[in-house]
Amino acid sequence: MTPGTSGSKGTIRVLQLYPRDMNIYGDWGNALVLQQRLKWHGYAPELLEYNPGDDFPDEVDLIVAGGGQDSGQLVIQDDLQMRADTLRGLAEDDAPMLVICGLYQLFGHFFKTRSGTVIPGIGILDVETHGTDERLIGNVKVTTPEFGEVLGYENHSGQTTLGPGVKPLGTVEKGTGNNSKDGHEGARYRNIVASYLHGSLLPKNPAIADFLIRNAVERKYGSFTPGEPDDHFAVLAREHAARRPR
Ligand code: GLN
Questions:
Q1: Residue 119 bridge partners (DSSP)
Q2: Does the beta carbon of 70 lie inside 6 Å of ligand 1?
Q3: pLDDT tens figures, 113-158
Q4: pTM score, whole prediction
């Protein structure tokens, strides 16, 4: 049996939140990377999806949540409020989560759109977002204290400001990130990584994928023994992304 592919070390249940409405610019790739890297580390991934109206699954070990247009955010907002306590309970219990762009905004206090509509968030993250007339589009390079250089692609008009309850994921070297003022990109809180970066994020940033996996495994099984992931394509993807002019 090939080491690291048997899933013999245990099962990890990865839940993708609202993939029908919140899943753009390749965000689904994040779930696929977690699936593959879990196998390489010797764990059996179970990929689950949650859409509005579904039963919320038991025993969720790791959550991935993608971006979406303002219209997608409007579709899921009521259901998200219904699930706020469950998601907050998981977050406060240190379940790892990756929340991107549109759901990053709604994990915060609110997103006020350009036209003045306030879409309430679930306030797990101490951030707020205001829609603007400026669209922030392009490749992004971020220096982070935890994950080294993070690469991705942004496309948003909402601008997010961090409160004292979160730390930024990092500082933007190229691109804009959270807003056009303070040079911050993303947010960190407990085991949540929040970011504006699509592309998708995890294929180019395996350090973040392994952070999520390590925390999911330690939370469930007490300790994590890494396997031997194949980073060949991650290296190529990073080289390609780093060459993009903007
Ligand atoms: N609708 C939000 C914005 O434009 C989120 C966009 C996204 O998820 N890419 O700010």
A1: 111
A2: yes
A3: 999 999 999 999 999 999 999 999 999 999 999 999 999 999 999 9
A4: 0.96
Q: Is 41 touching ligand 1 by the criterion CB < 6 Å?
A: no
**Phi-psi category of 207—alpha, beta or left, where left has phi over 0 and alpha has psi -120 to 50?**
alpha
Question: Which residues neighbour 59 within 8 Å (Cβ) at sequence distance 6 or greater?
Answer: 13
101 is catalytic: yes
According to CATH, the topology of domain 7-243 is: Rossmann fold (3.40.50)
Q: Report how far residue 63's alpha carbon sits from residue 99's, in angstroms, rounded to the nearest whole number.
A: 8
Index of the ligand 1 atom closest to the CA of residue 131: 10
In this prediction the ipTM stands at 0.92
Q: Ligand 1, from 17, 105, 112: best to mutate by most atoms within 8 Å of Cβ?
A: 105
* Ligand 1 centre distance from Cα of residue 138 (Å): 13
Compute, in angstroms, the gap from residue 129 CA to the centroid of ligand 1: 10
**Torsion sign, CA atoms 166, 170, 173, 177:** negative
Between the CA of residue 86 and those of 53, 95, 176, what are the distances in Å? 14, 11, 32
Distance CA(134)–CA(157), nearest Å, equals: 6
